[in-house]
Design brief:
Number of strands: 5
Order of helices and strands: EHEHEHHEHHHHHEH
Largest sheet: 5 strands, mixed
Helix content: 40-55%
Number of domains: 1
Strand content: 5-15%
Structural class: alpha/beta
Strand order of the largest sheet: 2-1-3-4-5
Distance between the termini: 30 Å
Shape: globular
Number of helices: 10
Length: 220
């Protein structure tokens, strides 16, 4: 990863380079808006959302290994846990489940201080909900959570058009920013994600660890 400078020009301050691995378009749209609205705070940081061309745990894990070799200062892996649970429930062939596979990746990566794994259970919208209410209620899917979220974010829609153009073209990040401190405090009251039993039912608890990203970026 080149951080060079043109010959004869003043040597610039070297920026830290952070990468975010996300497996959904909505996370990518949200992070892109964060970059846009927090440019003054992120002036010493190059934040690069990475959206794998193909989905899947193995693809994301290999991308993290590649970025680690390239010398990134910090790598964040944002996971929607409902997808892992859903795919695990659909596996009845005795082979390694999605949950087992993720457990292996989690154990390998979590000891590396440069890698931060962020779990949303069920999904990113659980983080959005914490901007309005403190709840540990478990929602088994986005569709179930959406019914509650729409009481606070009118006409919420998981589309690029909504994310960028809602509320007079302010966008979802700008709209939520006024309640960011509340979301961080509410999320930290929830239990952090931990692996326990292999039974997927043991993971029926609401979790959002997005506050880790904002604390690392020093955004409040």
């Amino acid at each position: 990863m080149s951080r060079g400078n043109k010959r004869g020009s003043k040597k610039p301050q070297i920026k830290k380079v952070f990468a975010l691995i996300v497996d959904g378009d909505d996370e990518s749209w949200y992070i892109e808006q964060l970059k846009k609205h927090e440019r003054d705070i992120l002036v010493g940081l190059n934040l690069r959302p990475e959206l794998p061309k193909t989905k899947g745990l193995e693809v994301s894990y290999k991308l993290i290994e590649k970025l680690e070799e390239e010398g990134y200062d910090k790598i964040f892996w944002i996971i929607d846990f409902d997808k892992i649970i859903e795919e695990t429930k659909g596996q009845n062939n005795g082979r390694q489940t999605k949950l087992d596979k993720f457990r292996g990746y989690y154990k390998k990566l979590s000891s590396n201080e440069k890698i931060v794994i962020i779990i949303n259970n069920p999904c990113l919208e659980y983080w959005f909900l914490q901007h309005f209410i403190q709840t540990s209620k478990f929602f088994s899917s986005y569709d179930e959570l959406k019914k509650i979220l729409k009481k606070h974010i009118k006409d919420y829609d998981k589309t690029e058009k909504f994310y960028y153009n809602c509320y007079g073209r302010k966008g979802i990040y700008s709209f939520l920013k006024q309640k960011l401190e509340t979301a961080i405090l509410n999320s930290k009251k929830l239990a952090n994600f931990t692996f326990n039993e292999t039974d997927v039912k043991s993971y029926e608890t609401g979790v959002t660890e997005m506050y880790k990203l904002f604390e690392e970026l020093k955004i409040k």
